[in-house]
């Protein structure tokens, strides 16, 4: 009954859909299998994998969702890489974790010239374009707060402050999405380091042995960013934090009209809605499906930088009245 009520409510609601204008029979990118990986820590207990297939009708079909590797074991690195490699050609993989490192972390220089003097393109971008985007965003927030009377207007002469962005925690892709498009890719801007990032870097290199290359058939995604772009910030927060996130997730799935579950998926829709990691794995695979079907491209501005430094693939934010 609960499921029927949610389906009826979703059908009546004129919410955004993930479908773009391109819904032809063939995808622009030559993929038919889409794997989403919600990557957890090295123990693999919080890692889940979803596999989708692209249908001839322009829709994605959930084939299987796996909270555990074959045999009931956690998704350790070897099991994860073996599973993906066995799928063969025509497979695109989307991982919900940073697949590139911040500039300072990957730097091989013995001595640091300082952030202001660094010539690394990512650092230069953070010091210039990124800083301008962040400052403009902060100014908009300050003006809005002043209009509502929640804070006093900023002084005419601002005191000196530390840089808004640091090249050892921030990556241009996350900064661009946050301040140019208004999309949050992680809980906190700057979550570009940590154990999961280290594991993601290892998995990326391991998959390279089997022909997977970044932004070719391996992409970085962010399920909260996908939800944010399609349904807005409240849903992006709510599908993890609401008192009953099951209902929020159910509404999201019902409104993704180009996503369906195969009868043989083995893991029911209701089970996916109850499992945070499985739900994010499905969203990751679905994002890869949209990326291929609708032929997403890197932003024209700073394209070379994002191709080298990494990009987080998300839908274009939905327009709202």
What would you note in describing this structure?
The chain has 321 residues and is α/β, with parallel strands linked by helices. It has 12 helices and 7 strands. The protein has 2 domains: 231 residues, Nucleotidyltransferase, domain 5; 65 residues, no CATH class. Helix content is 42%, strand content 11%. A hairpin with a 5-residue loop joins strand 2 and strand 3. The N terminus is likely disordered.
Strand proportion, as a percent range, falls in 5-15%
Kindly report the CATH topology of the largest domain: Nucleotidyltransferase, domain 5
Mean pLDDT: 84
Low-confidence stretches: 1-26
- Text of the CATH class of the largest domain: Alpha Beta
Q: Can you list the strand order of the major beta sheet?
A: 6-3-2-1-4-5-7
Describe the secondary structure blueprint for this structure.
Blueprint: H1 2-12, E1 33-38, E2 48-54, E3 60-66, H2 77-86, E4 91-95, H3 103-106, H4 121-148, H5 172-180, H6 195-208, E5 218-221, H7 223-231, H8 233-241, H9 245-255, E6 259-261, H10 269-274, H11 276-293, H12 303-309, E7 312-313
Parallel strand pairs: 1-4, 3-6, 4-5, 5-7
Antiparallel strand pairs: 1-2, 2-3
Helix pairs in contact: 1-9, 2-6, 4-5, 7-8, 7-11, 8-9
Which short descriptors sum up this protein?
Nucleotidyltransferase, domain 5; seven-stranded mixed β-sheet; 12 helices; disordered N terminus; alpha/beta; 321 residues
Briefly characterize the structure.
The protein has helices spanning 2-12, 77-86, 103-106, 121-148, 172-180, 195-208, 223-231, 233-241, 245-255, 269-274, 276-293, 303-309, and strands spanning 33-38, 48-54, 60-66, 91-95, 218-221, 259-261, 312-313.
């Amino acid at each position: 009954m609960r499921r029927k009520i949610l389906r009826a409510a979703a059908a009546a609601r004129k919410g955004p859909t993930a479908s773009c204008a391109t819904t032809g029979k063939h995808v622009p990118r030559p993929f038919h299998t889409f794997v989403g990986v919600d990557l957890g820590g090295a123990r693999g207990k919080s890692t889940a994998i979803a596999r989708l297939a692209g249908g001839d009708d322009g829709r994605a079909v959930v084939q299987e969702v796996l909270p555990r590797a074959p045999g009931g074991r956690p998704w350790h690195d070897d099991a994860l890489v073996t599973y993906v490699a066995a799928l063969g050609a025509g497979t695109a993989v989307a991982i919900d974790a940073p697949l590139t490192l911040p500039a300072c972390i990957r730097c091989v220089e013995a001595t640091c010239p300082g952030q202001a003097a660094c010539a690394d393109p990512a650092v230069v971008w953070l010091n210039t374009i990124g800083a301008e985007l962040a400052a403009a965003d902060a100014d908009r927030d300050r003006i809005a707060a002043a209009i509502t009377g929640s804070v006093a207007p900023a002084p005419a002469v601002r005191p000196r402050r530390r840089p808004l962005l640091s090249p050892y925690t921030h990556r241009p892709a996350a900064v661009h999405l946050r301040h140019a498009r208004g999309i949050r890719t992680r809980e906190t801007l700057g979550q570009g380091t940590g154990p999961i990032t280290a594991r993601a870097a290892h998995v990326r290199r391991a998959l390279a042995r089997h022909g997977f290359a970044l932004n070719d058939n391996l992409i970085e995604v962010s399920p909260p960013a996908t939800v944010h772009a399609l349904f807005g910030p409240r849903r992006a927060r709510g599908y993890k934090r609401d008192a009953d996130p099951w209902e929020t997730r159910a509404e999201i799935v019902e409104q993704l009209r180009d996503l369906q579950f195969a009868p043989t998926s083995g893991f029911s829709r209701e089970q996916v809605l109850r499992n945070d990691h499985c739900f994010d794995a499905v969203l990751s695979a679905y994002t890869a499906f949209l990326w291929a079907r609708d032929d997403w491209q890197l932003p024209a501005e700073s394209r070379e930088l994002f191709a080298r430094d990494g990009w987080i693939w998300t839908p274009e934010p939905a327009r709202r009245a």
